[in-house]
Amino acid sequence: MRPAHIALAALVAAVWGVNFVVIEIGLGHFPPLLFSALRFLAAALPAVFLVGRPKVAWKWIVGVGLALGVAKFSLLFTGMDLGAPAGLSSLILQIQAVFTALFAFVALGERPGRVKLAGMAIALVGIAVAAFDEGTSGPLVGFVLVIAAAVCWGVSNVLTRKASPPDALNFMVWVSTVPILPLLALSLLLEGPERDLAALRGLDWAGLGVIVYVAWVTTIFGFGAWGWLLRRYPASSVAPFSLLVPVFGMSSAALFLGEGVSGLRWCAAALLVGGVALTSLWRGSPPPAPPSPAPVERVTDAPDPLVGGGVTRG
Question: Are residues 257 and 24 in contact, defined by beta-carbon separation less than 8 angstroms?
């Protein structure tokens, strides 16, 4: 990769990592389900009028919209609202690579090799260490909801693989249109119209900036740049940069929110990132080259009446 494109990939990882801090700030302005609905509303409009018609079947757009937009983000925002720290959430979500591999095995028949299985086991040990650390220092319910969000992300990844969108930005913008109404309905039902109206009446420049960041910077810029890099370079060259997301997430949470990082959490981070790297990046040894064909033996028996030579037997 060219240095400028390496810098772009690292910038996208930084944008996605800092996003967890921005979400934490946004949850001080909006209830989690309303916040998620506003995120997708801002990501879809006006971009949906600029990216052209959908380039995959609607069933994939709706499926990913429900799994990623409604389920994953509502669980993530609610988990963080209930106390899951921003830095830890950026780390825990990376377990989605393990769930993606498991669901791909069930739905797509992609059998993981021994190295990938070892990576899954290491990542799960990392989750166990993080759960132990969180259980002794914070609310476990938020932690569990973030893991559930990672499960839903794994489902949406498999659906996206099945859809195989040729344009990642076009796909993401259309996917963003699906969760808006379901999330608004859930917010009215579970969070109440009074709380929603109070949040909207109290909208200030900080709240507006949060929505702009999570919608336009992380979605429009982030997915657009990531998709452009994936079209230009092999996935094996671009994908490793996603492992920088929890690095930026944990460091920005420590810097801007004052979140401490215990020794157990560093241990969990090392195990989880290492396990995810093995699970998502390992390609295995290339298959052995087929044996060269045996040399053709030419045997001349009798004259060929058509060409005047001998017949060839092989």
Answer: yes
